[in-house]
């Protein structure tokens, strides 16, 4: 069953997790229901893509209402296709929420076990990875294009959580809407890196389609890395939505680089347990 369920025209949630874990918000926006125009029609949430700042801020306010996290609780990153992760605390709230300039530098993944923080990253084809370890209330999100994938940002997250005392067996992962294997054509250089990363996997997730051209299933590469890192296969949810095939999404490839960004997000709502 598809784990990402459309709640209204503007966002999907990871329905199974939301139902299971009280107070959790986790999902991804679509490109519909916003104020941006032209190449960014309409719900562009990326500051850095050439859209008007006022439109991006209007769109972010709208999403903050929809997901019920005030904008000043969001945290955003200057994503660089690297594998740097950052543990987020309440002191970081608001960084990257209203402007790109004060976003957290050179970071492609966040995690936290504190409430009242919305971890957010921007996407248009790259793979969003969502993590949760319910017993320790740890949540995380990562951005995996091909560089982050072969750099094994997924494994970095699982290692970082290991240092927090979390066993991989306790970790659940959801792999979100991103470019599918039919739409993602890469050259031998990328395939070599994938082969090095998945050295002992028997069936590799790519196909030769033309001389020097391969179709690559980036989501499945991430799934295999996560399994190699000790997370049971049954703990991993994987979407069938493709950012390029499905018109709900912005796609960097399909739109030839001139496009908006969706937001993937995860956070624990503040509870009233202290009252
Ligand atoms: Zn596709």
Number of domain modules? 1
**What is the number of beta strands?**
15
Report the sheet-strand fraction.
25-35%
Hetero groups: zinc ion
Shape: globular
Low-confidence stretches: none
Q: What CATH architecture label applies? A: 4-Layer Sandwich
**Number of helices in the DSSP assignment:** 6
Characterization of the model:
With 275 residues, this protein is an alpha+beta fold. It has a single domain, classed as CNF1/YfiH-like putative cysteine hydrolases, CATH 3.60.140.10. 21% of the residues lie in helices and 26% in strands. The protein has 6 helices and 15 strands. A hairpin with a 2-residue loop joins strand 1 (4-8) and strand 2. It is globular, with a radius of gyration of 18 Å. The mean pLDDT is 96. Zinc ion binds at residues 180, 182-183, 242, 244-245.
Quick take:
It contains six helices and 15 strands. With 275 residues, the protein is an alpha+beta fold. The chain has a single domain, classed as CNF1/YfiH-like putative cysteine hydrolases, CATH 3.60.140.
Offer a few descriptive terms.
26% strand; 275 residues; CNF1/YfiH-like putative cysteine hydrolases; 6-stranded mixed sheet; binds zinc ion; single chain; alpha+beta
